[in-house]
Amino acid sequence: MNDLYGKPHFTSTRDGGQNYTTLDLSALSSTMVDVNFVDGAIGVVGGGVNGAIKNGYATVLHTQDSGRTWKTVYTSTKPGTQLWKFSKSSDGVIAGAVQAFGATTPYVIFSRDSGRTWTESSIAIGTDLNLTGLQSVGLLSSEYGWVGGRLFSSRSTTNGGKSWQQDSSVLRSVNRFQFFSDTLGYASGAQVYVYRRGSTTHTDDDEKVGVARMIDLRVSNSGPGVIEISLPTHFAVQNVSLYDMQGRELAHEAPSVTAQGTMLLRHSLRSGVAIVVVCTDIDCLSGLVAIQ
Question: Which residue, 18, 123, 205, 244, is the most exposed by fewest CB within 10 angstroms?
């Protein structure tokens, strides 16, 4: 970390991971850290420009042709900044966590037009301008979100980044947020945390953030179009969902029970990696399976 290696580049596949192409982006940036796509054509990459991590400027590049060409749409005016992580809400807002080194205070940037234009949001609370280590931002919706980073507890916003407050959750040192719907999300940091909510209507007291328990959920291929799901028999399964790696829900039949603790999930996905989410009477569990 903090040193540059190689050239900043964008690598993509258009055949389900069979082949990849790489585009050199060193004419537009010095570093690249994260990527986020709105759909198959429109997306952003972020990192820094005009210097190394400790003296460069955070930057965002935008594409409208699936990454074949890129243009700069945001560059920070503050030295020692770096775009670290993106997050996209279910209603289409993109946020970026801007890490800062030296005298600059880290902040968040927001886009409400698929990454074309950006506005800045300070995460400072009162006179607290010495915060360092921002690494992540997670958006549940255009209004509700969190930030996290090294050695500090998370902060949250309920008004789209107009203001931030210390969050009451136990999230610490979060490097990545990932939401799969407005009722299920994960955060990886000092531990792995899970976000669950009982309904799709947000209130101040219905957030449930806690440490995810290590439970033996197993998912595997069981022939073309079939995923086998196994978990301990003392859990009562309430529902099963299937997502692709972009968090989009995939169509599938209702799971069929073949034995105690074992189910088969039939789907139409031909290839790729899928996320199986099993919600029980105790918790929501997830697992990855490679579809071949």
Answer: 205
The DSSP secondary structure of 215-284, one letter per residue, reads ---EEEE-STTEEEEE--TTS-EEEEEEEETTS-B--BPPPEEEETTEEEEEB---SEEEEEEEEESS-E
pLDDT digits (tens, 9 = 90+) for 67-104: 999 999 999 999 999 999 999 998 899 999 999 886 67
Partners of residue 71 on adjacent β-strands: 62
Question: Does residue 263 contact residue 237 with C-beta atoms inside 8 Å?
Answer: yes
Q: Residue 230: what residue type? A: S
Can you give the residue ranges of every domain in the chain?
9-211, 218-291
- Give the architecture-level CATH label for domain 218-291: Sandwich (2.60)
pLDDT score of 249? 86
Spelled out in words, what is the top-level CATH class assigned to the domain 9-211?
mainly beta
pTM greater than the 0.90 cutoff: no
